[in-house]
Structures are given as C-alpha cells and as structure tokens.
C-alpha cells in the first residue's frame, strides 16, 4: 500500500512524522508502546546485544546504541552471511538466476557495478528508464537486479518490461564475487 503511493523507507529526520495510511487507533498505539517497552526491558536486563553488522558499515548507529544502552554491551559480529551453507544463503522469494554468476566470472576484478533497489523501493517507469540509460551510458559493466513491483503503477506480479537476460540473482553470492567493484543500493 505505501510502496504503491511512492513512499520510501523513512529518513531519520522523518521518523516522528505520522503515516496517514496507518490507523491512529489508541488501541493500536497502546499495543505498539507495550511491545517496545517489553523489548527495551528485555534488552536492558540482558547480558548484551549482538547485531549482524560491523562498525565500519554502521558506526554512527552503533555509537548511538552504545550510548543509549550504556549498561548493556553491544557487539557487532557481522557480516554473518558467509558462514551459512550455500543452500541457505538466498532469502529471495524469486528463483535466482545463476547465469549472472557465469557472466561475472568473465569480468575483470572489481569492474562491475551491482545495482539493487531492494524489496521495498519503487520508481516510476520514467525514472527506471532514465536510470537505465544513465547506467548504460557510463560504459561500465553492470548487473542490475530488477524485481516485480519495482515500477509504480505496473502490475506487481510482472517484472519490469526489459529485454531478455534480466533476472533475480543471489545477492550474497554476487556481492562476494571478485568482479563486483561497486554497489549501488536504495540504502533501506
């Protein structure tokens, strides 16, 4: 519902802004407040908070957590995805296209731009086309993950209208590939 209206994941400065499509029922707010209170109580009485991230990636957020939870140690132990067996690495709901890994094998080290909009972001058809021309115009090899529901107003069951050869990829394997030299993401 929100993605169809063009809403993107909130920036930190917008976290207190109301979302008009969500219920303002005090009962719902009470349940949410109670849940947050339970989480905070459990965290405050725990021996520590273990997060699948790393300081180099989220230094400001980790510093804020450590400041806010001064009595609870916060451990950044990630990324943990490389410890999973290959059969468990994909959390995608789409069937991964392994052909992209063969294509990556043929590319020079650190030469490919990997572009992914994630599972929540949406764009207009015009923005998708403009982005495609911009990436193609860069002259750099790129691997772009496009999923059904990315284009606002298009049927969410259909992938974006692009040429054959586009498909879902196993993100973890692609990001770990030596040919990938850059990652363009929606940051959400």
From TrEMBL:
<dbReference type="GO" id="GO:0080043">
    <property type="term" value="F:quercetin 3-O-glucosyltransferase activity"/>
</dbReference>
<protein>
    <recommendedName>
        <fullName>UDP-glycosyltransferases domain-containing protein</fullName>
    </recommendedName>
</protein>
<comment type="similarity">
    <text>Belongs to the UDP-glycosyltransferase family.</text>
</comment>
<dbReference type="GO" id="GO:0080044">
    <property type="term" value="F:quercetin 7-O-glucosyltransferase activity"/>
</dbReference>
